[in-house]
Amino acid sequence: MRLTMRLFFFLLILFSTSSLKAQTPFPQHQSKSNQSAQSQRQINDKLARNFFNNKEYDKAADLYQQLYVDYRYYYYFSQYIECLIFLERFDEAEKDLKSFIKNDNTTNKWRSNVSLAYVLFRDNEKDKSDKILKKLINELPADKNVFIQVANEMRAKDFNEFAIMLYDRGSGISSMDYKFFMEKALAYQSMMDFGKATENYLLQLEEKPDDYEVVKSRMSYMLRYNVDDSVIDDMRFALLKKAQENRDNENFAELLVWFALQMKDYEIALDQEIALDRRFDDREYDVIYLAKIARDNEQYDIAIRAYDYLIKKSTEGVYYEDAVVGMTEVQYQKVESSLYEGSKTEFYSEFEKRIEKECTELGVSDKTIPILIIRAEILASRLNEIEKSIEILNDALPLNISRLNKAKIKMKLADIYLFKEEVWEATLLYSQVDKSMKEEPIGHEVRFKNAQLRYYIGEFDWALSVLNILKSATSKLIANDAMTLSLVISDNLEYDTIALQRLAKADFYIYQKRYELANQMLDSINVYNPNEVSMPYLLMRKAHIAMENNDYEIADSLYKRVYQGYADSYMADDALMKDAILLEKTLDKKEEALECYAKLIDEYASSVYVAQARNAYRRIRN
User: Fold this and answer.
1) For residues 519-534, b (16+ Cβ closer than 10 Å) or e, as one string?
2) Contact 263, 618 (CB under 8 A)
3) Closest CA to 359 of 348, 370, 344
4) What whole-number distance in Å separates Cα of residue 9 and Cα of residue 301?
5) Which residue in 490, 454, 498 sits closest to 471, CA to CA?
6) Rounded distance, CA 462 to CA 443, Å?
7) 202, 239 in Cβ contact below 8 A?
8) How many whole angstroms separate alpha carbon 196 and alpha carbon 241?
9) What is the pTM of this model?
10) Is the pLDDT of residue 331 over 90?
């Protein structure tokens, strides 16, 4: 009996152990099986993608269909449908989509409705397609994530109008508490409706002011689509409308300033900056900054208005001195650019006295050195008081001013010594500045001036060696001037040195503002040494003299002779730009100016003036 019981318990334990072993999986063996299945899935997935990318849609369709059957992954089903659409097997795609929609209860059901609408649309059944989308918009459950997914599917299928309808419905559902402004803006952007896109970006900004940088970035991206200025027009209208309707919204005003600066529409930018300063009393720096930008872009009247606002606002303001100095500089630039209407001699006389008064009131310091230099230049070159100009510059040198301003004073002294034909005194001062400021931008400028001096006195090889190095200067203006003078010298050296000597002499007379002598010298080249090499430069110099003498019609005809008669000359783009500015701003011939800007943009694409011409063209047309 005891033996029988022992045998029973032994068999029971043996059976239980065997049973446990039979029910316990074998991890190592099962892992290999899973790895094999996963590996096969990856192979088929990659193969299907390759077929799809290579436009072998029939083979891709078979693989994606099998992958979906095996793994029930929605991506495989949607890719399978895509293949059927490319193969134009619309009936098959419609049938499979309807079957899927009937049996699915996830978000994919709604997304598949969009795919079904797309299949019908591609199969020229637009009415049915629209009906499905409208029904979908009305029946979609009030879930933000579902709305976003379905709308994304619509946008991917280019159903942007229906996506906007869906966003509109969603924004009206209070439980979702979401307005979809950013999403709507992107949809409108895809439809190339940049006005509506801008409106929705601004609505987003109104609701969430912290999104300012995001909105600005999106609007900046929209500007890339601007080809015929329609984008700019739509965006400008929407921005202006919103800013005017919400005058107390600082974000809208700042965005309008940013947009205006992108478009180089400095007038609108200044209007907004002044309005902001009047409202918040903290925008003086921005007004000064805008004035400098306008001045650098030769929008002198706008810069003057900006400085004038700050000067009149308060003599105790932080930027009062900057405004006084800036106003003086820009008014002088305007006169020197030959855009001044009236007697220049009278202007210079009164202007010099004004600067003297400003320097007395503000003191001579690093801030006022720029206008002190202007005063010295006027005394020497316009009022024939050379010794007085030298005196006031020498008096400023010992003052506690920056190294840069000391260099600027020395450079202006050198200019004046050259003006009075003390050549070696001038070159000595230029060399001092060059040595002390070698790696600074002023170092490049003074090197060019020294090379120009050598050109004036006939040391052409010396001048050419320096100019050839300066052609790669960091400053575009210096590099361009160096390139032009280098070509004048090198071309004429090879062709006619007598003509070159006379050109150099004429240029020196122009520098000294002895225009009658300069014209006589240039006319002598025209009589005795006329050639294709020297003529474009000769005409440009005569045009410069005509501009200085306010003979604008003559200047216009001379510029035209350059770019019409010597279109292949390196002076042609310069002549076009100068004539365009003359026609636009002085002769008030906007249409002719437009033609010049367009010609420059189209025919001289590598010119340094192209960007400036494009902005001017847009400004006039707008």
Assistant:
1) bebbeebeeebeeebb
2) yes
3) 370
4) 111
5) 490
6) 18
7) yes
8) 12
9) 0.76
10) yes
- Under a CB-based contact definition with an 8 Å cutoff, are residues 251 and 285 in contact? no
For position 6, what pLDDT does the model report?
Answer: 41
Tokens at 236, concatenated: 């400008």
**Token output for 68:** 């979906």
Return d(Cα 468, Cα 479) in angstroms, integer.
9
Distance CA 171, CA 429 (A): 72
Q: Which two tokens stand for residue 41?
A: 């899935």
What is the structure's pLDDT at 278? Answer: 92
Amino acid code (one letter) for 305: R
Cα separation, 186 vs 188, in Å, equals 5
**Contact by Cβ (8 Å): 259, 246:** no
Element (H, E) at 531: none
Q: How far apart are CA 141 and CA 130, in angstroms?
A: 19
Query: Is residue 567 a contact partner of residue 544, using CB atoms and an 8 Å limit?
Result: no
Q: Is 530 left (phi over 0), alpha (psi -120 to 50) or beta?
A: beta
Query: Cα separation of 616 and 610, whole Å?
Result: 10
**Could you give the C-alpha distances from 139 to 121, 163, 187, 222, in angstroms and in order?**
20, 14, 21, 34
The one-letter code for the residue type at 28 is Q
- The full set of domains in the chain, from first to last, is 525-621 (1.25.40.10)
Q: Say how far apart CA 538 and CA 562 lie, in whole Å.
A: 9
User: pLDDT at residue 552 above 70?
Assistant: yes
Which CA distances in Å does 508 have to 13, 64, 458, 570? 119, 81, 11, 21
Cα separation values, 507 from 287, 453, 456, 540, Å = 39, 10, 7, 11
Quote the mean pLDDT of the chain. Answer: 89
The two three-digit tokens of residue 142, written as one number: 């009030």
Q: What is the mean pLDDT of residues 599-603?
A: 95
- DSSP letter (8 states) at residue 191: T
Helix (H, G, I), strand (E, B) or coil at 527: helix
Q: Is 553 left (phi over 0), alpha (psi -120 to 50) or beta?
A: alpha
Q: Which two tokens stand for residue 543?
A: 């045009």
Q: In one letter, which amino acid is 128? A: K
Kindly report the number of other CB atoms within 10 A of residue 461's CB atom.
9
Length of the chain: 622
Q: 8-32 pLDDT, tens per residue? A: 333 333 333 333 333 322 233 334 5
Please state at what angle helix 572-581 crosses helix 610-621, rounded to 10 degrees.
30
The C-alpha torsion from 434 through 438 and 441 to 445, rounded to 10°, is 30
Q: What confidence tens digit (pLDDT) does each residue in 173-208 have?
A: 999 999 999 999 999 999 999 999 999 999 999 999
C-beta of residue 249 within 8 angstroms of C-beta of residue 208: no
**Which stretch of DSSP H or E encloses residue 358?**
helix 344-362
Q: How confident is the model at residue 33 (pLDDT cuts 50, 70, 90)?
A: low
* Pairwise CA distance, residues 412 & 434, whole Å: 13
User: For 427-473, what is each residue's pLDDT tens digit?
Assistant: 999 999 999 998 888 999 999 999 999 999 999 999 999 999 998 87
- Residue 603 Cα to chain centre, angstroms: 22
